[in-house]
Specification:
The chain is mainly alpha-helical and 71 residues long. The protein is built from two helices and no strands. The chain has a domain at 18-66.
Length: 71
């Protein structure tokens, strides 16, 4: 039994293709793009929220300076 296992050639990975198996009905491609889209959205969300927060803070600063009485 040991001689059978030692004669078996070892395989190696030649390439990785994302969702190109015709038997998978292209489900792999859909899942790949859903994961990439979710990752991109999660990276953009803090940037957008920081911009909105900065803009709201600036508006409140301008409106509070307009409310001060002038002498």
């Amino acid at each position: 039994m040991k001689t059978m296992l030692s004669r078996r050639p070892k395989g190696r990975v030649l390439a990785v293709k994302w969702g190109l198996n015709p038997n998978s009905s292209s489900l792999g491609v859909d899942v790949t793009f859903l994961l990439l889209g979710a990752a991109a959205l999660s990276m953009c969300t803090p940037v957008v929220s920081a911009l909105v927060r900065f803009r709201l803070a600036r508006q409140s600063e301008v409106s509070s300076s307009d409310d001060k009485p002038t002498r």
